[in-house]
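Recall from the previous lesson that a structure prediction takes nothing but the amino acid sequence as input. Here we apply that procedure to tRNA-specific 2-thiouridylase MnmA from Arthrobacter sunyaminii. The sequence below is the only information supplied.
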Amino acid sequence: MKVLAAMSGGVDSAVAAARAVEAGHDVVGVHLALSRMPGTLRTGSRGCCTIEDSRDAWRACDILGIPYYVWDFSERFKEDVVDDFVAEYAAGRTPNPCMRCNERIKFAALLEKALALGFDAVCTGHYAKVITDADGNPELHRAADWAKDQSYVLGVLTHEQLKHSMFPLAETPSKAEVRAEAERRGLSVANKPDSHDICFIPDGDTRGWLEERIDMTEGDIVDSSGEKIGTHPGANAFTVGQRKGLKLGRPADDGKPRFVLEIRPKENKVVVGPEKLLNIDQMRGIKISWAGLPIPEIEARTQFDCMVQVRAHGDPVAARGWMEDVASDEADGGVREELVVRLNEPMRGVAPGQSMVIYQGTRVLGQATIDSARSLEWDPAAVS
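The prediction returns the following C-alpha coordinates.
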Protein backbone atom coordinates (compact mmCIF):
# COMPACT_ATOMS: atom_id res chain seq x y z
CA MET A 1 0.00 0.00 0.00
CA LYS A 2 1.25 3.50 -0.82
CA VAL A 3 1.29 5.50 2.42
CA LEU A 4 1.91 9.16 3.11
CA ALA A 5 3.38 9.58 6.60
CA ALA A 6 2.60 12.95 8.21
CA MET A 7 5.85 13.83 10.01
CA SER A 8 5.38 16.44 12.73
CA GLY A 9 9.00 16.22 13.87
CA GLY A 10 8.07 14.41 17.06
CA VAL A 11 8.73 10.92 18.32
CA ASP A 12 5.21 9.57 17.76
CA SER A 13 5.02 10.35 14.04
CA ALA A 14 8.58 9.07 13.53
CA VAL A 15 7.84 5.70 15.13
CA ALA A 16 4.49 5.47 13.31
CA ALA A 17 6.29 5.97 9.99
CA ALA A 18 8.92 3.39 10.97
CA ARG A 19 6.22 0.82 11.71
CA ALA A 20 4.54 1.53 8.37
CA VAL A 21 7.86 0.93 6.59
CA GLU A 22 8.47 -2.25 8.59
CA ALA A 23 4.97 -3.48 7.62
CA GLY A 24 6.05 -3.40 4.00
CA HIS A 25 4.23 -0.30 2.82
CA ASP A 26 5.65 2.13 0.27
CA VAL A 27 6.07 5.14 2.57
CA VAL A 28 6.78 8.79 1.79
CA GLY A 29 7.27 11.33 4.59
CA VAL A 30 5.82 14.84 4.47
CA HIS A 31 6.09 17.73 6.92
CA LEU A 32 3.49 20.49 6.88
CA ALA A 33 4.77 24.07 6.86
CA LEU A 34 2.00 25.96 8.63
CA SER A 35 3.53 29.44 8.82
CA ARG A 36 5.66 31.52 6.46
CA MET A 37 6.99 33.37 9.51
CA PRO A 38 8.53 30.75 11.84
CA GLY A 39 8.67 33.27 14.69
CA THR A 40 4.87 33.21 14.87
CA LEU A 41 4.84 29.55 15.92
CA ARG A 42 5.94 28.21 19.28
CA THR A 43 9.29 26.45 19.40
CA GLY A 44 11.04 23.84 21.49
CA SER A 45 8.95 21.55 23.66
CA ARG A 46 5.97 23.89 23.48
CA GLY A 47 5.35 23.95 19.73
CA CYS A 48 4.83 21.86 16.63
CA CYS A 49 5.38 22.29 12.89
CA THR A 50 8.28 24.77 13.29
CA ILE A 51 11.58 24.95 11.38
CA GLU A 52 13.32 22.84 14.01
CA ASP A 53 10.52 20.28 13.79
CA SER A 54 10.98 20.17 10.01
CA ARG A 55 14.65 19.34 10.48
CA ASP A 56 13.83 16.62 13.01
CA ALA A 57 11.32 15.12 10.56
CA TRP A 58 13.92 15.16 7.78
CA ARG A 59 16.46 13.35 10.00
CA ALA A 60 13.89 10.68 10.88
CA CYS A 61 13.04 10.07 7.21
CA ASP A 62 16.76 9.88 6.41
CA ILE A 63 17.24 7.19 9.05
CA LEU A 64 14.20 5.28 7.72
CA GLY A 65 15.41 5.60 4.15
CA ILE A 66 12.19 7.12 2.82
CA PRO A 67 11.63 10.20 0.63
CA TYR A 68 10.90 13.44 2.47
CA TYR A 69 8.98 16.52 1.38
CA VAL A 70 7.73 19.74 2.95
CA TRP A 71 4.28 20.91 1.86
CA ASP A 72 3.28 24.53 2.35
CA PHE A 73 -0.17 24.63 3.95
CA SER A 74 0.39 28.02 5.62
CA GLU A 75 -2.37 29.88 3.77
CA ARG A 76 -4.92 27.15 4.45
CA PHE A 77 -3.81 26.98 8.10
CA LYS A 78 -4.28 30.73 8.55
CA GLU A 79 -7.75 30.68 7.01
CA ASP A 80 -9.10 27.47 8.51
CA VAL A 81 -7.45 27.47 11.93
CA VAL A 82 -6.06 30.86 12.97
CA ASP A 83 -8.83 33.03 11.47
CA ASP A 84 -11.45 30.58 12.73
CA PHE A 85 -9.95 30.80 16.24
CA VAL A 86 -10.26 34.60 16.23
CA ALA A 87 -13.78 34.51 14.77
CA GLU A 88 -14.98 32.04 17.38
CA TYR A 89 -13.65 34.13 20.26
CA ALA A 90 -15.19 37.25 18.69
CA ALA A 91 -18.52 35.38 18.74
CA GLY A 92 -18.13 34.61 22.45
CA ARG A 93 -17.15 30.97 22.01
CA THR A 94 -14.11 28.98 23.17
CA PRO A 95 -12.70 27.04 20.19
CA ASN A 96 -10.29 24.10 20.07
CA PRO A 97 -7.71 24.90 17.36
CA CYS A 98 -6.20 21.40 17.46
CA MET A 99 -9.59 19.92 16.51
CA ARG A 100 -9.86 22.37 13.59
CA CYS A 101 -6.29 21.58 12.50
CA ASN A 102 -6.96 17.85 12.48
CA GLU A 103 -10.27 18.35 10.70
CA ARG A 104 -9.30 20.87 8.04
CA ILE A 105 -5.54 20.54 7.63
CA LYS A 106 -4.06 17.21 8.74
CA PHE A 107 -6.86 15.16 7.27
CA ALA A 108 -9.13 17.16 4.95
CA ALA A 109 -6.45 19.11 3.07
CA LEU A 110 -3.61 16.61 3.49
CA LEU A 111 -5.69 13.54 2.67
CA GLU A 112 -7.27 15.26 -0.32
CA LYS A 113 -3.83 16.00 -1.77
CA ALA A 114 -2.51 12.55 -0.87
CA LEU A 115 -5.36 10.77 -2.67
CA ALA A 116 -4.95 13.03 -5.70
CA LEU A 117 -1.30 11.97 -5.86
CA GLY A 118 -2.19 8.27 -5.74
CA PHE A 119 -1.59 7.47 -2.06
CA ASP A 120 -3.87 4.94 -0.39
CA ALA A 121 -3.66 6.20 3.17
CA VAL A 122 -2.28 8.87 5.48
CA CYS A 123 -0.31 7.61 8.47
CA THR A 124 0.01 9.69 11.65
CA GLY A 125 1.36 9.23 15.17
CA HIS A 126 -1.99 9.68 16.89
CA TYR A 127 -2.94 7.27 19.66
CA ALA A 128 -6.25 5.90 18.35
CA LYS A 129 -7.38 2.91 16.34
CA VAL A 130 -9.55 2.18 13.33
CA ILE A 131 -11.53 -1.06 13.52
CA THR A 132 -13.40 -2.47 10.54
CA ASP A 133 -16.83 -3.95 11.25
CA ALA A 134 -18.30 -7.12 9.71
CA ASP A 135 -19.52 -5.16 6.68
CA GLY A 136 -16.16 -3.55 6.04
CA ASN A 137 -17.04 -0.15 7.49
CA PRO A 138 -14.41 1.70 9.56
CA GLU A 139 -15.00 2.69 13.17
CA LEU A 140 -12.84 5.00 15.29
CA HIS A 141 -11.93 3.66 18.75
CA ARG A 142 -9.82 4.68 21.72
CA ALA A 143 -6.18 3.60 21.80
CA ALA A 144 -4.91 0.83 24.04
CA ASP A 145 -3.19 3.41 26.28
CA TRP A 146 -6.07 5.50 27.61
CA ALA A 147 -3.62 7.90 29.25
CA LYS A 148 -2.31 8.88 25.80
CA ASP A 149 -5.57 8.30 23.91
CA GLN A 150 -6.14 10.97 21.24
CA SER A 151 -9.44 9.77 19.82
CA TYR A 152 -11.05 12.97 21.14
CA VAL A 153 -9.15 15.24 18.73
CA LEU A 154 -9.85 12.78 15.89
CA GLY A 155 -13.60 12.79 16.53
CA VAL A 156 -14.00 15.14 13.55
CA LEU A 157 -12.93 12.45 11.06
CA THR A 158 -15.62 11.26 8.69
CA HIS A 159 -16.46 7.80 7.36
CA GLU A 160 -14.52 8.45 4.13
CA GLN A 161 -11.50 9.87 5.95
CA LEU A 162 -11.33 6.89 8.29
CA LYS A 163 -11.13 4.59 5.27
CA HIS A 164 -7.78 6.18 4.42
CA SER A 165 -6.39 6.74 7.93
CA MET A 166 -3.62 4.66 9.50
CA PHE A 167 -2.63 4.87 13.18
CA PRO A 168 0.27 2.44 13.81
CA LEU A 169 0.50 3.37 17.52
CA ALA A 170 -3.05 2.19 18.24
CA GLU A 171 -2.10 -0.85 20.32
CA THR A 172 1.01 0.58 21.96
CA PRO A 173 0.65 0.21 25.74
CA SER A 174 2.60 3.35 26.72
CA LYS A 175 4.52 6.38 25.47
CA ALA A 176 7.61 5.01 27.22
CA GLU A 177 7.56 2.06 24.84
CA VAL A 178 7.41 4.41 21.85
CA ARG A 179 10.42 6.34 23.11
CA ALA A 180 12.35 3.11 23.75
CA GLU A 181 11.55 1.92 20.23
CA ALA A 182 12.72 5.22 18.77
CA GLU A 183 15.98 4.85 20.71
CA ARG A 184 16.48 1.32 19.31
CA ARG A 185 15.86 2.57 15.80
CA GLY A 186 18.40 5.35 16.19
CA LEU A 187 15.87 8.16 15.87
CA SER A 188 17.20 11.42 17.33
CA VAL A 189 13.72 12.44 18.52
CA ALA A 190 13.54 9.57 21.02
CA ASN A 191 13.65 11.91 24.01
CA LYS A 192 12.15 15.03 22.43
CA PRO A 193 9.51 16.57 24.76
CA ASP A 194 5.88 16.51 23.69
CA SER A 195 4.41 19.64 22.12
CA HIS A 196 1.54 21.41 23.85
CA ASP A 197 -0.33 24.70 23.99
CA ILE A 198 -1.47 26.73 20.97
CA CYS A 199 1.27 26.64 18.34
CA PHE A 200 0.46 29.99 16.69
CA ILE A 201 0.60 32.05 19.90
CA PRO A 202 4.40 32.32 20.44
CA ASP A 203 4.46 33.61 24.02
CA GLY A 204 1.44 31.65 25.26
CA ASP A 205 -0.49 34.82 26.19
CA THR A 206 -3.81 33.95 24.54
CA ARG A 207 -5.69 36.90 26.02
CA GLY A 208 -3.07 39.44 24.92
CA TRP A 209 -2.86 37.88 21.46
CA LEU A 210 -6.65 38.10 21.05
CA GLU A 211 -6.82 41.71 22.27
CA GLU A 212 -4.60 42.70 19.32
CA ARG A 213 -7.09 41.13 16.89
CA ILE A 214 -10.54 41.70 18.39
CA ASP A 215 -12.08 45.10 19.10
CA MET A 216 -12.84 45.40 22.80
CA THR A 217 -15.69 47.70 23.87
CA GLU A 218 -16.80 48.46 27.43
CA GLY A 219 -20.10 46.84 28.38
CA ASP A 220 -22.25 45.58 31.23
CA ILE A 221 -21.69 42.76 33.67
CA VAL A 222 -25.08 41.45 34.79
CA ASP A 223 -26.16 38.80 37.28
CA SER A 224 -28.21 35.71 36.47
CA SER A 225 -31.43 37.71 36.77
CA GLY A 226 -30.26 40.38 34.32
CA GLU A 227 -29.45 43.14 36.84
CA LYS A 228 -26.38 45.25 36.04
CA ILE A 229 -23.72 44.89 38.73
CA GLY A 230 -20.59 46.15 36.99
CA THR A 231 -18.79 46.95 33.74
CA HIS A 232 -16.16 45.15 31.69
CA PRO A 233 -13.46 46.36 29.21
CA GLY A 234 -14.58 43.90 26.51
CA ALA A 235 -16.72 40.77 26.69
CA ASN A 236 -14.31 38.74 24.57
CA ALA A 237 -11.62 39.06 27.25
CA PHE A 238 -13.58 36.74 29.54
CA THR A 239 -14.12 32.99 29.61
CA VAL A 240 -16.88 30.85 31.08
CA GLY A 241 -15.95 29.79 34.62
CA GLN A 242 -13.69 32.80 35.24
CA ARG A 243 -13.76 34.21 38.78
CA LYS A 244 -10.82 36.61 39.03
CA GLY A 245 -10.64 39.98 37.33
CA LEU A 246 -14.39 40.72 37.33
CA LYS A 247 -13.94 43.87 39.49
CA LEU A 248 -17.58 43.97 40.51
CA GLY A 249 -18.92 47.00 42.31
CA ARG A 250 -20.64 45.06 45.07
CA PRO A 251 -20.53 41.58 46.60
CA ALA A 252 -23.22 38.95 46.10
CA ASP A 253 -26.02 38.84 48.64
CA ASP A 254 -24.61 35.65 50.14
CA GLY A 255 -21.07 37.03 50.12
CA LYS A 256 -19.79 34.22 47.91
CA PRO A 257 -17.71 34.71 44.73
CA ARG A 258 -19.42 35.00 41.37
CA PHE A 259 -18.30 33.32 38.18
CA VAL A 260 -18.75 34.01 34.48
CA LEU A 261 -21.75 31.95 33.32
CA GLU A 262 -22.16 33.26 29.80
CA ILE A 263 -20.67 35.69 27.29
CA ARG A 264 -23.04 37.56 24.99
CA PRO A 265 -20.96 39.37 22.35
CA LYS A 266 -23.95 40.66 20.36
CA GLU A 267 -25.18 42.49 23.47
CA ASN A 268 -21.63 43.01 24.77
CA LYS A 269 -22.69 41.53 28.12
CA VAL A 270 -20.97 39.22 30.56
CA VAL A 271 -23.38 37.20 32.73
CA VAL A 272 -22.16 36.12 36.17
CA GLY A 273 -23.66 34.07 38.95
CA PRO A 274 -23.07 31.57 41.76
CA GLU A 275 -20.65 28.70 41.33
CA LYS A 276 -23.39 26.06 41.36
CA LEU A 277 -24.71 27.34 38.00
CA LEU A 278 -21.44 26.27 36.38
CA ASN A 279 -22.60 22.67 36.85
CA ILE A 280 -23.83 21.86 33.36
CA ASP A 281 -26.68 19.39 32.89
CA GLN A 282 -27.40 19.72 29.20
CA MET A 283 -25.51 20.66 26.03
CA ARG A 284 -26.66 21.35 22.50
CA GLY A 285 -24.28 20.82 19.62
CA ILE A 286 -24.12 22.04 16.02
CA LYS A 287 -21.70 21.37 13.13
CA ILE A 288 -22.21 17.66 13.77
CA SER A 289 -20.14 14.95 12.12
CA TRP A 290 -20.12 11.17 12.53
CA ALA A 291 -16.93 9.13 12.83
CA GLY A 292 -17.96 6.27 10.59
CA LEU A 293 -21.56 5.37 9.83
CA PRO A 294 -24.11 6.84 12.31
CA ILE A 295 -25.72 4.40 14.74
CA PRO A 296 -29.39 3.51 13.93
CA GLU A 297 -30.76 5.75 16.69
CA ILE A 298 -29.40 8.80 14.87
CA GLU A 299 -31.42 8.09 11.74
CA ALA A 300 -34.46 7.03 13.78
CA ARG A 301 -34.32 10.18 15.96
CA THR A 302 -34.52 8.09 19.13
CA GLN A 303 -32.54 8.48 22.34
CA PHE A 304 -29.36 6.54 22.98
CA ASP A 305 -26.96 5.97 25.88
CA CYS A 306 -23.49 7.39 25.45
CA MET A 307 -20.47 8.93 27.14
CA VAL A 308 -19.54 12.53 26.38
CA GLN A 309 -16.09 14.15 26.62
CA VAL A 310 -15.41 17.88 26.23
CA ARG A 311 -11.60 18.03 26.61
CA ALA A 312 -8.76 16.08 25.08
CA HIS A 313 -7.84 14.56 28.45
CA GLY A 314 -11.11 15.11 30.27
CA ASP A 315 -13.10 12.38 31.96
CA PRO A 316 -16.06 11.08 29.94
CA VAL A 317 -19.47 11.47 31.57
CA ALA A 318 -22.48 9.17 31.09
CA ALA A 319 -25.37 10.77 29.24
CA ARG A 320 -28.41 10.35 27.02
CA GLY A 321 -28.25 11.77 23.52
CA TRP A 322 -30.74 12.50 20.75
CA MET A 323 -31.13 14.53 17.58
CA GLU A 324 -33.52 17.45 17.23
CA ASP A 325 -34.57 19.66 14.34
CA VAL A 326 -34.57 23.25 15.56
CA ALA A 327 -35.77 26.41 13.85
CA SER A 328 -32.72 28.31 12.65
CA ASP A 329 -32.19 31.95 13.56
CA GLU A 330 -30.59 32.51 10.17
CA ALA A 331 -32.18 34.95 7.73
CA ASP A 332 -33.67 32.13 5.63
CA GLY A 333 -35.69 30.93 8.63
CA GLY A 334 -34.72 27.32 7.96
CA VAL A 335 -34.21 24.33 10.23
CA ARG A 336 -30.92 22.98 11.56
CA GLU A 337 -29.99 19.72 13.23
CA GLU A 338 -28.80 19.79 16.82
CA LEU A 339 -27.30 17.03 18.92
CA VAL A 340 -28.74 17.24 22.44
CA VAL A 341 -26.90 15.59 25.33
CA ARG A 342 -28.44 15.31 28.81
CA LEU A 343 -25.77 14.42 31.38
CA ASN A 344 -26.37 11.85 34.09
CA GLU A 345 -24.28 13.95 36.44
CA PRO A 346 -23.23 17.61 36.12
CA MET A 347 -20.03 18.62 34.33
CA ARG A 348 -17.96 21.72 35.17
CA GLY A 349 -16.16 24.18 32.94
CA VAL A 350 -18.13 23.74 29.72
CA ALA A 351 -18.29 26.62 27.26
CA PRO A 352 -19.89 27.18 23.84
CA GLY A 353 -17.34 26.59 21.07
CA GLN A 354 -15.78 23.56 22.72
CA SER A 355 -16.15 20.20 21.02
CA MET A 356 -18.17 17.44 22.62
CA VAL A 357 -17.17 13.99 21.42
CA ILE A 358 -19.67 11.17 21.87
CA TYR A 359 -18.61 7.59 22.69
CA GLN A 360 -20.22 4.19 23.17
CA GLY A 361 -17.68 2.04 24.97
CA THR A 362 -14.38 2.65 23.20
CA ARG A 363 -16.01 3.67 19.94
CA VAL A 364 -16.21 7.31 18.88
CA LEU A 365 -19.68 7.94 17.46
CA GLY A 366 -19.03 11.52 16.40
CA GLN A 367 -18.72 15.09 17.57
CA ALA A 368 -20.41 18.45 17.62
CA THR A 369 -19.47 22.03 18.45
CA ILE A 370 -21.22 23.09 21.66
CA ASP A 371 -23.70 25.85 20.85
CA SER A 372 -25.15 26.10 24.36
CA ALA A 373 -24.41 24.55 27.73
CA ARG A 374 -26.61 25.17 30.75
CA SER A 375 -27.59 24.20 34.23
CA LEU A 376 -31.20 23.11 34.42
CA GLU A 377 -31.44 25.24 37.57
CA TRP A 378 -31.10 28.43 35.52
CA ASP A 379 -32.94 29.72 32.47
CA PRO A 380 -30.67 32.06 30.45
CA ALA A 381 -33.83 33.71 29.09
CA ALA A 382 -34.13 35.37 32.51
CA VAL A 383 -31.36 37.71 31.37
CA SER A 384 -32.99 40.24 29.05
